[in-house]
């Protein structure tokens, strides 16, 4: 594939990612209010979020391995089909049982990791952080569009109509995958796999866990999990916080999420590329962890949605740069034939946070209130920052 064709595929991949995030955030504007109407309290809503986390935690690494073995088109097609089923089940959810059942297709819903794999495969290594950051720009566009659209559709036409709308949108994404994404985006995949004696089995756990043995990878994963835990807890509880603490209606919540999207678009579309070209990835990761600890203090003291809107800027900066930089560091530590599996493992980190986050978040919210999220964020990130500052960059991931 020549450079022009690679660039075209990357642009189409950005479009597919933006559409997928749109439908995802459209669903975020539906589920909390549907759950409340069905009688869910904060604890049960936490269980619902935990269910999604467990399902995607199990599916993420396997999906990444599937993408490496069968190629980008097959992997993205499976994700888009799962999204169609997911939204159709959401439209049919009229009981507590059905609301849990509709989450099951989420085991295959990994369009963003699939898009990351395509971009990582087709972009130049030195520009990978910037290219992955542009996916964050797509994320911001999807967040703005999906949140605003979801709030408007569910308010004016009802939750079922909004869910059917998302299902149709996922069909559009599937058509784009079939028509524009090549079957395989990797270079010399077969030769590299044969050379290493890799198994073609999708469920080969040895091939998945093998990547964790490379120098520095386990340390980076540990940092990614521990430092991201407080933010993950806050994110999964935010819909409850926006309803109960900020007293926002669905349409107002949609506008707030759109604001998040604008901030993220600027950071990931413009800022990350310039920062990654001037500073080392390890230095940027360390800075983000330190900044995140300061954001925790600010979160603990906020009392209104206006305060939160000011805090969002440094919070989104630290979160966005941290996620992109750690993903870039980890994909550079493996061969091109393993980028899908590595990104699947990266996605499983977010799923792990969503798994434990609702249970911990529900307890903190009910027992200590919203300020507790900020204090936990400060303590954990300040500790990680101090430890990394003393250990230095001796254990950064290196390409084998």
Unreliable parts: none
Multimeric state of these chains? single chain
Mean pLDDT: 80
Domains counted in the coordinates: how many? 1
Radius of gyration using CA atoms only:
20 Å
Reported for the largest beta sheet, the result is: none
Helix content estimate: over 70%
Q: Short description, anyone?
A:
With 400 residues, the protein is an all-alpha fold. It has 16 helices and no strands. The chain is 80% helix and 0% strand.
Would you kindly provide a written description of the structure presented here, covering whatever features stand out?
This protein has 400 residues and is mainly α. It has a single domain (3-182, 209-391), classed as MFS general substrate transporter like domains (Growth Hormone, Chain: A, Up-down Bundle). Helix content is 80%, strand content 0%. It has 16 helices and no strands. Helix 3 runs antiparallel to helix 15. The mean pLDDT is 80.
């Amino acid at each position: 594939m020549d450079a022009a064709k690679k660039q075209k595929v990357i642009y189409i991949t950005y479009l597919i990612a933006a559409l997928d995030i749109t439908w995802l955030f459209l669903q975020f504007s539906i589920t909390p209010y549907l759950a409340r109407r069905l009688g869910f309290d904060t604890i049960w809503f936490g269980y619902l979020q935990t269910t999604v986390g467990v399902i995607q935690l199990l599916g993420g690494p396997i999906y990444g391995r599937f993408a490496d073995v069968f190629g980008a088109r097959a992997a993205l097609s499976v994700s888009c089909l799962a999204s169609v089923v997911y939204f159709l089940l959401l439209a049919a959810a009229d009981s507590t049982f059905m609301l849990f059942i509709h989450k099951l297709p989420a085991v295959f819903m990994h369009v963003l990791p699939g898009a990351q794999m395509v971009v990582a495969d087709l972009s130049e290594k030195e520009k990978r952080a910037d290219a992955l950051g542009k996916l964050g720009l797509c994320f911001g566009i999807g967040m703005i569009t999906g949140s605003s659209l979801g709030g408007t559709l569910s308010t004016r036409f009802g939750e079922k109509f909004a869910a059917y709308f998302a299902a149709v949108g996922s069909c559009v994404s599937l058509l784009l995958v079939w028509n524009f994404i090549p079957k395989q985006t990797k270079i010399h995949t077969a030769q590299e796999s044969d050379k290493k004696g890799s198994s073609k089995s999708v469920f080969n756990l040895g091939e998945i866990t093998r990547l964790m043995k490379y120098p520095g990878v386990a340390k980076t994963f540990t940092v990614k999990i521990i430092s991201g835990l407080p933010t993950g807890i806050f994110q999964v509880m935010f819909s409850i916080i926006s309803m109960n603490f900020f007293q926002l209606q669905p349409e107002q919540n949609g506008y707030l999420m759109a604001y998040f999207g604008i901030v993220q678009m600027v950071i990931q579309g413009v800022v990350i590329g310039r920062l990654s070209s001037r500073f080392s990835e390890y230095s940027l990761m360390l800075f983000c962890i330190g900044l995140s600890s300061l954001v925790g203090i600010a979160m603990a003291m906020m009392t209104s949605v206006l305060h939160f809107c000011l805090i969002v800027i440094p919070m989104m900066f630290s979160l966005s740069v941290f996620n992109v930089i750690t993903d870039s560091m980890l994909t550079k530590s493996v061969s091109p034939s393993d980028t899908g599996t590595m990104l699947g493992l990266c996605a499983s980190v977010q799923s792990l946070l969503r798994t434990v986050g609702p249970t911990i978040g529900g307890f903190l919210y009910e027992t200590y209130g919203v300020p507790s999220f900020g204090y936990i964020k400060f303590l954990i990130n300040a500790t990680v920052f101090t430890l990394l500052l003393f250990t230095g960059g001796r254990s950064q991931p290196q390409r084998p």
